[in-house]
Write a structure and sequence with these properties.
420 residues, alpha+beta, 8-stranded antiparallel beta sheet, 6 helices, 22 strands, flat, endoplasmic reticulum, Calreticulin/calnexin_P_dom_sf, disulfide bond, unfolded protein binding, carbohydrate binding
């Protein structure tokens, strides 16, 4: 065989074969997967034909297509970016209606809070086909709400809220979101066996059973109402020490009369009433006496209340499924704008979603971080140069003032000598 590039015989055909195999594998995965919605904003301004801004309020914030201040790829990293501070945002995109009954549902997208967001949403909502997109608002009925929400130091969580019988049910598990300012991949997987999984950057951060982790149904078991805790069951961990006796001099009033006070000379009983000695805090007051606590020798632990099957419980094996899923939307509030949403995907294939995440976010996350680090270093260098110039100018002005002051002293000394 002829030598390939760099003189390595047979290497080029092998590389080509490997690439073809990878492409074939991707094609097969794509053939197996059903992609209901996919949006990467790769066709410039054409995104405005696919996404509809809500007209619910006249002062809603505007989205723009941007990659941000730092990115891994100037084209591939472009997404919907919030552009106005302290605004509500509402925008949505429609696709062919489908039902996830009997199928896995995967909702995935990327979020970048490059503005180091202090308070604002980064989540998406999934709606049915009957949503009035021009009237999208926080009151609009949704099927699923998923994604990060940040506000202050306390709220830094990932929402997972599923609608069941026209009532939203939030997940009971706390899931912390990313807050470092870089692009992150968020994935929600809902399976027909009523299990779910939440992934951040293609790594599982939470999983479980929908019925167990969201309060859709009454509990399967309840406490037996016919059984009462035995009267002799002692569940007190600690008790008063019977040998600890209150000191005789303990009881002192909290306030006492200040007999050292004197009636003001201008005190008028007719106007101010009869004068009395004022009350002051008693320095001997020690508060309410309580005996010290000791371990209860008769402690038997928490009484295990016998349980029975809940007569009000009825299993529902369709909690996970929705009909006429047809719209994905962003309905959020942001104090400081700048968040970028990109790489939206709704599919029935977990593997396809993971590969799609690796081929989008996975390929640009490294260069994005490198650009940000470089920009930070350049900014720090500019600040250092500016600071040096500032102190240099201050030093020059100080020398000039010192020189002028020295000249003034020389003149004054000359005048004094002439006067003398």
């Amino acid at each position: 065989a002829a030598a390939g590039p760099g003189g390595r015989g047979g290497r080029a055909p092998a590389v080509v074969a490997l690439r073809l195999a990878l492409l074939l594998g991707a094609a097969l995965r794509s053939a197996r997967a059903t992609v209901y919605f996919q949006e990467q904003f790769l066709d410039g301004a054409s995104w405005q034909k696919r996404w509809m801004n809500s007209e619910h309020k006249p002062d809603l914030g505007k989205f723009k297509l941007a990659a941000g201040k730092f990115y891994g790829d100037a084209v591939r990293d472009k997404g919907l970016q919030t552009s106005e501070n302290s605004k509500f945002y509402a925008i949505s995109s429609r696709f062919k209606p489908f039902s996830n009954k009997g199928k896995t549902l995967v909702i995935q997208y990327t979020v970048k809070h490059e503005q180091k967001i202090d308070c604002g949403g980064g989540y998406v909502k999934i709606f049915s086909s009957n949503l009035d997109q021009k009237n999208l608002s926080g009151d609009s009925h949704y099927y699923i709400m998923f994604g990060p929400d940040i506000c202050g130091s306390e709220t830094k969580k990932v929402h997972v809220i599923l609608n069941y019988k026209n009532k939203p049910h939030p997940i009971k598990k706390p899931i912390r979101c990313k807050v470092d300012g870089y692009t992150h991949l968020y994935t929600l997987i809902i399976r027909p066996d009523q299990t779910y999984e939440v992934k951040i950057d293609n790594e599982m951060v939470a999983s479980g059973n929908l019925e167990d982790d969201l309060d859709f149904l009454p509990p399967r078991k309840i406490n037996d109402p016919t059984v009462r805790k035995p009267t002799d069951w002692d569940d007190r961990i600690q008790i008063d020490d019977p040998n600890d006796i209150k000191p005789e001099d303990w009881d002192e009033p909290e306030y006492i009369v200040d007999t050292s006070a004197e009636q003001p000379e201008d005190w008028d009983d007719a106007v101010n009433g009869e004068w009395h000695y004022p009350m002051v805090k008693n320095p001997l007051y020690r508060g309410e006496w309580k005996p010290r606590q000791i371990d209860n020798p008769n402690y038997r632990g928490v009484w295990p209340h016998p349980q029975i099957d809940n007569p009000n419980y009825s299993p529902d094996f369709s909690i996970y499924s929705y009909e006429n899923i047809s719209i994905i939307g962003l309905d959020i509030w942001q104090v400081r704008a700048g968040t970028i949403f990109d790489n939206f995907l709704i599919t029935d294939d977990e593997v396809y979603a993971e590969d799609f995440g690796d081929e989008t976010w996975g390929e640009t996350k490294g260069p994005e971080k490198e650009m940000n680090i470089k920009q930070t270093e350049e900014e720090q260098e500019r600040e250092r140069v500016t600071e040096e110039k500032y102190f240099e100018q201050r030093f020059k002005k100080k020398l000039e003032r010192k020189k002028e002051s020295g000249n003034d002293r020389a003149v004054r000394n000359t005048v004094k000598k002439e006067e003398l």
